[in-house]
């Protein structure tokens, strides 16, 4: 299996190279040359597999340059009851109104990003060791992504993590989660500025080609192909849990921001998983909801990006969306270059002539949720005995309830646990006790490791250089 870029100007590459890549050199995103097709007999056989067995079957179709025994070992070390809270890894439960929830947030940082990042951490370490290489991850985070990366890469050989975060802007829980890590390869850097300033510093370092090459600087953002492929697995797992036979169809409702999570659902559907609809649930930042309703993609400016109570979906443009549009255009790289030239110039594009295909051939639907909807949904699910759900998952439940058709089975993906967003839970449901996994009791009291720096890229470069020279 080789990988190509959506912009069509990158030579085909094997999985283990694509694994370490961010954007392709031509500015596109990497995708497999074709999607493996799962026939009925294979699907039937997969129904009985454990999560790690299923993960091996699926990922081995994509990671064809990693020997089977090595891949199995990476996967068996990743998807364990110890790391994900149960042998099922992603159990499915049913709410009183019949909507199902697939738990994806029982990993170390209580958000679905662990599902892919934990795999990536082990896969990175393996691929780097084989190539005798080193990788220094530089990232910016406002919370979730940074902690998932740090917990996935802590203690890994050949890897350092330099994670920038805006000083004082994360919740005390998020700060404690990241800054309490004492692993020598994890470096937390609090920048005196906003999240955008942190991102600008990352870009400035990335743009310094000499520094980047000399210090082996890489990233792990949501466009990484390794993350998408690991996410494909739980759509199959959720489908098997929600059905009795493969004659049944299931729809997935996915709280969406950068289109990474639901992009994996699109790939699972293209592989032949019987998915009826893929429902994108957005918050007030509804660029994707607008596209799936109108066919018009209209990325927002920073000023038109809302700060909401489901903050991990506060995006102005959806960075993985290009992967779907590539398929939608019949994999036409020239058209993708033209469409994204429009995006780059601050406009967007209009594919409304493709709406029937978007809905019928590809099965997409969408909805949006507001702060009020989110609070009401959290309160309602709690009162009806469904437990406390987090604000992002609430956006998914709200939209699923709104768009559900007669006889449709909808599985909502749980993208975080309520424990990460106590303030919104209290606003929604009053002074309830928000359960926290035992391992995280007293987290805020642990000693913290972080250095605070002015908003200045050169100072960050100096820290990286001096740390690596030690
Ligand atoms: C990252 C994240 C999302 C959005 O996922 P995308 O892949 O960016 O669409 C939703 N909810 C939570 C809790 C997240 O951390």
UniProtKB/TrEMBL annotation:
Top-level taxon: Bacteria
Keyword Lipid biosynthesis attributed: no
PANTHER family: THREONINE SYNTHASE FAMILY MEMBER (PTHR42690), THREONINE SYNTHASE-LIKE 2 (PTHR42690:SF1)
Species this protein is from: Neisseria musculi
Domain (Tryptophan synthase beta chain-like PALP): residue spans on this chain: 103-327
Co-factor(s): pyridoxal 5'-phosphate
Residues carrying N6-(pyridoxal phosphate)lysine: 113
Name of the featured protein: Threonine synthase
Keywords of this entry: Lyase, Pyridoxal phosphate
Pfam families documented for this protein: PALP, THR4_C, Thr_synth_N
Threonine synthase N-terminal domain location: 2-79
Protein family according to the UniProt entry: Belongs to the threonine synthase family.
GO biological process, one term: threonine biosynthetic process
Signal peptide interval: none
E.C. number: 4.2.3.1
MF term (GO), any: threonine synthase activity
């Amino acid at each position: 299996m080789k990988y190509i870029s959506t912009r069509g100007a990158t030579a085909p590459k094997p999985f283990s190279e694509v694994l370490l890549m961010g954007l392709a050199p031509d500015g596109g995103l990497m995708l497999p040359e074709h999607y493996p097709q799962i026939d009925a007999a294979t699907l039937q056989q997969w129904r009985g597999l454990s999560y790690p067995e299923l993960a091996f079957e699926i990922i081995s179709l994509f990671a064809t340059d990693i020997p089977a025994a090595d891949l199995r070992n990476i996967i068996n070390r990743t998807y364990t009851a110890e790391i994900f809270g149960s042998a099922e890894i992603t159990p499915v439960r049913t709410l009183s109104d019949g909507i199902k929830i697939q738990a994806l947030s029982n990993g170390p940082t209580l958000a679905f990003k662990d599902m892919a990042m934990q795999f990536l951490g082990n896969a990175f370490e393996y691929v780097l060791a084989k190539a005798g290489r080193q990788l220094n991850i530089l990232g910016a985070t406002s919370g979730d992504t940074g902690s998932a990366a740090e917990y996935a890469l802590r203690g890994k050989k050949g890897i350092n993590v330099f994670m920038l975060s805006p000083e004082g802007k994360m919740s005390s829980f998020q700060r404690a989660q990241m800054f309490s890590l004492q692993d020598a390869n994890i470096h937390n850097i609090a920048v005196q500025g906003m999240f955008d300033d942190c991102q600008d510093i990352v870009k400035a370092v990335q743009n310094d080609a000499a520094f980047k090459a000399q210090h082996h600087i890489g990233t792990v953002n949501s466009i990484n192909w390794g993350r998408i492929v690991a996410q494909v697995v739980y759509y199959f797992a959720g489908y098997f849990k929600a059905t009795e036979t493969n004659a049944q169809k299931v729809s997935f409702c996915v709280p969406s921001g950068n289109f990474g999570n639901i992009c994996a659902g699109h790939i699972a559907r293209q592989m032949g998983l019987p998915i009826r609809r893929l429902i994108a649930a957005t918050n007030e930042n509804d660029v994707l909801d607008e596209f799936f309703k109108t066919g018009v993609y209209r990325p927002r400016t920073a000023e038109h990006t809302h700060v909401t109570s489901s903050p991990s979906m506060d995006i102005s443009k959806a960075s993985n969306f290009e992967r779907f549009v590539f398929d939608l255009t019949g994999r036409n790289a020239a058209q993708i270059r033209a469409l994204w030239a429009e995006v780059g110039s601050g406009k967007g594009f209009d594919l409304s002539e493709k709406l029937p295909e978007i809905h019928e051939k590809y099965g997409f639907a969408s909805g949006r949720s507001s702060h009020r909807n989110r609070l009401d949904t959290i309160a309602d699910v709690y009162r009806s005995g469904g437990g406390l759900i987090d604000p992002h998952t609430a956006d998914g439940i709200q939209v699923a309830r709104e768009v559900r058709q007669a006889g449709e089975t909808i599985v909502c993906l749980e993208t975080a646990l309520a424990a990460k967003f106590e303030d919104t839970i209290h606003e929604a449901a009053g002074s309830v006790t928000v359960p926290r996994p035992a391992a995280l009791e007293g987290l805020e009291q642990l000693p913290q490791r972080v250095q605070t720096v002015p908003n200045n890229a050169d100072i960050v470069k100096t820290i990286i250089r001096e740390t690596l020279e030690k």
